[in-house]
Amino acid sequence: MKWDKLHSVYFLGIGGIGMSAIARWFSHVGIPVFGYDRTPSPLTLKLEEEGMKVTYEDSLDTIPGRVKDDMENVLVVWTPAIPKDNVQLNFFQQNGFNLKKRSEVLGMITHSMYTVGVAGTHGKTTTSSMVAHMLKYAGKNIAAFLGGLTQNYESNLILHDEENEEKPVVVVEADEFDRSFLRLHPNVAVVTSVDADHLDIYGDAQELTRNFESYIKLLPEDGLLFIQKNALEKLDRNSFGGLSLRQYGLGEGEIRAENVKAGIASFEFDFVSKEKTIEGLILKVPGFHNVENALASIAIALHFGISESAIREGLETFRGVKRRFEIKRQDNKGVYIDDYAHHPEEIRAFLRSVKAMYPGKKLMAIFQPHLFTRTRDFAEGFSEALSLADEVVLLDIYPARELPIEGVNAAMLMDKITSPEKSLQTKEGLLEFLDKKRPEVLVTLGAGDIDRLVDPINNLIEQWD
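Structure (tokenized):
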């Protein structure tokens, strides 16, 4: 597709984190951007501030005339998260518009660039953001399409310097949802984890692993794979032949972290591989799982010839990703951390790290389940992982793109949660509940609209004596 032929691009679901990065790219190259999303959010409002036109009404009347009346020169980008009965989607489909999924467009944008693709059912957003920051900090000419808002750049898009003679490297979060990552063209790949997820898309865990194997096979013969040790054990290694790969893990694998020390606001560890040892690294984004993410990022930086000093400084200056182990406050009024965790393994890794950071303190976890199918498929795992907290508070399931499933609700997790205290609360009554409880260490977890409660909760804690 010739971008210079387009007079506008229309995004269905423009407020999605992956969609908005591509919308920003088109806006940057000078193509007018329009879009629809279900509700306003801080991200859509930011896009509007940047000059994009966004509507929140699913109506034909809200589609700009320049989009409706000139289908030949319009690209419509959509995400499968858009419901099938969406009025605008059906209009574009029925009238022969040039529709492409987000993943197709991302593949088209990056196909001619040397690509680092970071995949995994957990950890891909932080790892891709960390890789991008470390390379950029070291002076590499990079672009990045990320699945979260990096704290360092306040964006999910990093643009390369077009005047730089160095050929750019693009870092891409390779999303397994809807098999999107199979449309990319990685030269270097990372696989952080291969745990069962998105079973509404894949049907079973075996199909998911087969698709991760297909993603790895996209690498060229001279490509390089960095893969977490437990993830590799879940795949058929023979399926991707003699590909050059490096395993990494906490205390195990040919690339590993040793002497890991959990601090209140940072973790310290040694990076160890056959070729290189870097001692006393400081990571100011806490979590054992983030140390593991850092291993892959450091290994990639070394692959690109980044110096030890630049790696050390790049890692220490990495501020993380919004809603990924985001410490909202840590003072005499209490500790409050917000995280996007929405899968049992993510919750387990997160809570284990929080408990290591604040030993002896009572931990309250507020969790909003995401999707009816995910809650149904992993109910026992959710209950087990949440039981690491001293007190568990459950909110109603956030449905996202799904319709309710009879018998599937947050309450079904309660019986197998073994925490001393547990309860169901509403979003509307949560602040009053917290004001009575005043927990020592509070965490909020979930991928739904629980993020809308983060600032009100933080403001409430500020008022406590």
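The first strand starts at residue 8 and ends at 12. The first helix runs from residue 17 to 28.
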